[in-house]
Amino acid sequence: MKTLYLECNMGAAGDMLSAALLELLPEEERASFVDKLNSLGLPGVTFAAEPSVKCGVTGTHMRVTVNGEEEQAYDVAHGHVHSHEHEHTHSHEHTHGEHEHPHDHSHDLHHDHEHEHSHSQSHHHAGMHDIEHLIGHMTLHPDVERDVLGVYGLIAQAESHAHGVPVEEIHFHEVGTLDAVADVTAVCMLMRALGPRQVICSPVHVGSGQVRCAHGILPVPAPATAHILQGVPTYGGEIQGELCTPTGAALLKWFASSFGPSPVMRVERIGYGMGTKDFPAMNGIRAMLGETADAGADTVAELHCNLDDMTPEAIAFAAERLMEAGALDVFTTAIGMKKGRPGVLLTCLCRPEDRGAMIRLLFVHTSTLGVREQLCNRQVLSRSQEQRQTRFGTVTVKVSEGWGVKREKPEYEDVARIAKELDMSIAEVGKKLEL
Length: 435
Known about the structure:
By secondary structure, the protein is of the alpha+beta class. 30% of the residues lie in helices and 33% in strands. The protein has helices at 14-22, 27-38, 128-136, 142-163, 174-194, 223-228, 246-255, 312-324, 355-365, 412-422, 426-433; strands at 2-7, 45-54, 57-66, 72-75, 80-83, 125-127, 171-173, 198-201, 204-205, 207-208, 210-213, 216-219, 234-235, 241-242, 258-259, 265-274, 284-292, 297-307, 329-336, 342-350, 372-379, 382-390, 393-402, 405-410. The protein has a five-stranded mixed β-sheet with strand order 15-8-1-17-16.
């Protein structure tokens, strides 16, 4: 199974995730993907993938500017405004606001947006409806648009919970909003481009200490981040500051199917998404894409009996009863029995917990006096179904994937229906479906 593992030993931020995933694309496709991001139509937003070295490891930093400027943050320790070194969702005068980007990942900084920004223009605020409008006017694949809205929904719900106000009253800072939407959109597009069947994430390092926002000094993780990460394994550490941001947390929560140690997998590509600040530990996310060695492993019971005195119709009836009861497969094999008699080997595959019921059915519906059984390990491809629009209407397609193999096959009943309706052969319909 195609698996993506995200190692978040230094937390997670939107720009770090997008940079790590970008490195998983073939090298010759990365520049064109950044061009695609820059053609999305986000007002004034520019993406730039820049080389970055942390602790001797070379990776990528995804720099996003809005009208040529980066989101600003207030350094409490030094009393001045400077580039946002870690994306942040902290509120303004009325409600919590979403601040994202050029995340310098400077976890020792505090943000206070009651202080003036160094932007030349004034900034307005936008509600969730404006965010939906902005997302809806980008040229996004429907799946990507759904993911972007889903991630933003998690953020908005967290902000709503943290401040005790309805989601529709949440307001986002203008530049922070564009910065955040850019990060979220980039990650969602990259997830679709990479196409992992499952995403597994390490326990998340959230940092420690406190962070300042317009409402005052808050603990790390900030309330919105803590709300999003409920149910996710997290830990603190010696590094002071916010390592996992609300947007980073929402992206992990939306895409990760599980959290834990790296699975046994055959790694094919590795990507490093870097922050900008230096720490004793590599300030970045490591993403690994590959095939999980045990993704398709399970155990089945294999039941056998030899038959030499049943009619084909009676054997077929027995096979039908077994399938109706939940057998995974039933098949026959021609065999030669004692004294030269031709016979049939009836084999039933079932889940181990169903073996008792299947053995009983074999005794009820066949003439056998004994059933042999054994447990078998098997490797299988993951299977799913998709609805595809074709020239003949909607067709169900069965998709199987894993171990570097992907197969697609239209559902027989749909192909047969089309063949009957158009007076065509099944082979002709199959060729014209163009799946």
